[in-house]
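Format notes (please read before filing issues)

Several people have asked whether sequences and structure tokens are stored in separate files. They are not. Every record keeps both together, in the order shown below: the sequence lines, then the token lines. Line labels are part of the format and must not be stripped during preprocessing.
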Amino acid sequence: MVGIGVIGCGRWGGNLVRNFAELGALAAVSDISPDAAREYSDAYSVPSPSPSEFFDSDGIDAVAIAVPAEGHAELALRAIGRGMHVFVEKPIATKFSDAARLVDAARGRGRILMAGHVLRYHPSFVKLEKTVADGGIGVIRHIESVRGCEPAHYRGESAIWGFAPHDVSMILALMGELPNRVEAEKRVDGVLIGPDSVDSTLEFPSGASCRFKASWLLDDREQRLKVSGDGGALVFDDCRPWPSKLLRSGNEDEDVGASADSKLDPVFVAEAEPLKLECEHFLDCIETGRRPTTGGREALEVMRVLDAMNESARTGGPVFLGDVELGQSRPFSENLKKSISASMESPSAHGVSPG
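Then the structure lines:
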């Protein structure tokens, strides 16, 4: 069995520790706070090396990184340099150029690099994605997404980098192409980095469009994705009870608000913990060599869109990415390489910009 070391024992890191332990793969835990690491070390009977000792510890074949986003790239590069496979929480970096370095480093060392876009492994989204792929709602015309929570949960994090990676990952998976035009309007400037609330519009070469809201300033927690096609609509609402997390309508214009339950038909989905499925997938990819669903290339495509959203919010104008089709089973297409190169040479290549 592969030995997984988890670095970062905060709230989400603790969830990773629990899941890898339940899968029999936990080898070590580490945190800048010795007390936090010791709590999990005692609970699961694994060593807790300090961050400076972690990457030289015995028994660690792969690392799961759950520290604040600013530290993701540095730690992931260190792990790859030690020959470890890497699972890194979203976003994999806060600069597009750093994300590209990670992808290149992992490819060069033949290591698995996987991003923590956990909603791609949610059974309800997996069902939605398959239904769309099978033509269940016809051709996608529009996607509407909202993700956020109340100000009481604000962590001083940009709404773009804190919320949008999940939705952008799902949207790109459904569309199979990068948007050629991205526009983001910030509603409130953040205290630290980026806006607290942002409304974005993505336009795709196929003619489909997407409206996306990410905010720390909602009246209540919302996590909803509506996909409308010319043959109906599907709604993935992760705030609903499990039996109604995935809903279907025969009318693409059907209301999806809380008062519209009676108009929408629930779609049966077997219940399972998305994070456990994600952790199992990481272990399987290490053991079999298969490409992760949310591997380095997918993470880089997501970063490209996030970077464009951030730049548009900063400048107040649209960002054009060009006509790029995503290569799901082949290396980067030439168009995507050109898009990446242009991004890294542009002023937006710094990734996160102040407000």
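For reference, the curators noted about this record: The two ends are 45 Å apart (CA to CA). The CA atoms of residues 160 and 214 lie 7 Å apart.
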